[in-house]
């Protein structure tokens, strides 16, 4: 049964970003017309959208209307734009959210071949295997969020559920969808013991690939931690995920014999479907030192540095790139300025399959686009 549909008056009272059903994020154009989640993860990005207190899913519009808004969006390109479904406002496989399959099936019926990312930590079942395997066009990747955190103030819904779901959904030898162990958030002193790392390594053997990443520790999340007397993991907050240098080194050591460990979501998603990275990370070569050779060859073959003219030509179709300035282009990335938000930057990046960096948010060498917290100065 569909979740309740909010009235227009009620929708108008939501925080502005919560009213935005389609939003571009680095890993894809994100569809979120279902909002509200009962899992209660303390680090949830819902804090930053003013949605934390909404624990019962509701709909801002019908599934059909939402998909129309998605494919009609100025940023959407058929067969090109990666899509994320319900990745910021609800858990897509809650029993009360039948809308996930409705969206997937609608997209598939349109014969679109776009990547579609579905992030979950809920229990899945055999019926989900059958239904997902009936999708014949879209490239579906299930990313199972697993942390191993046992502090119920931070993660009241146990990690072992996601682990079992990953094993179940990865078990068919032949299937059309792909699975990724989304090992996150890794936080020093919380879930980074040798035992935690060994458990994640063992679980990774069931997935098609593994991505590891840290905590989005934004101001709103820090305020929640303080209000609930949860130990603060860092002294400061950051706009990017925090993965300290020492923690990354320990992860790489624990996974030294892994065949498919990645630092970036898009790298793993592209790999499991046998395609080059749609975010063009190949130019940032220190990212690639843990990638399988076969994937390096794919990405190298697809890597092409655009000209200034080509970048402006791609940008010309958008009204929100009129003030774009191209500062520099190297084999590594294009450095730009003048964009009002990051959303058009992602459009340019996915269209060109090449890294686009904003002058206001520099990418430090070896930080891998992460926060500065926990890194030594000699890596600057």
N→C terminal distance: 53 Å
Mean pLDDT: 94
What is the CATH homologous superfamily assignment? Aldolase class I
Helix fraction? 25-40%
What general outline do the C-alpha atoms trace?
Answer: globular
Major β-sheet annotation: 8 strands, mixed
Q: Give the C-level CATH assignment.
A: Alpha Beta
Compute the CA-based radius of gyration. Answer: 20 Å
Poorly predicted regions are none
Order of helices and strands: HEEEEHEHEHEHEHEHHEHHHEEHE
How much of the sequence lies in strands comes to 5-15%
Count of beta strands = 13
* Named CATH architecture: Alpha-Beta Barrel
What would you say this structure looks like, in words?
This protein is an alpha/beta fold and 380 residues long. The chain has a single domain (8-279), classed as Aldolase class I (TIM Barrel, Alpha-Beta Barrel), CATH 3.20.20. It contains 12 helices and 13 strands. It has helices at 8-12, 63-71, 99-109, 126-133, 159-170, 194-204, 219-227, 245-254, 265-272, 293-302, 308-315, 343-352; strands at 22-25, 28-31, 34-35, 58-59, 83-85, 115-120, 139-146, 178-183, 209-212, 261-262, 325-329, 334-337, 356-358. The strands form 3 sheets. Strands 1-2-5-6-7-8-9-10 form an 8-stranded mixed beta sheet, sandwiched between helices. Strands 11-12-13 form a 3-stranded mixed beta sheet, with helices on one face. A hairpin with a 2-residue loop joins β1 and β2. α2 crosses α3 (99-109). The longest helix has 12 residues, at 159-170. The radius of gyration is 20 Å and the shape is globular. The termini are far apart. The mean pLDDT is 94. Keywords: Iron, Iron-sulfur, Lyase, Metal-binding. This is DNA repair photolyase. InterPro entries: Aldolase_TIM, MJ0683-like.
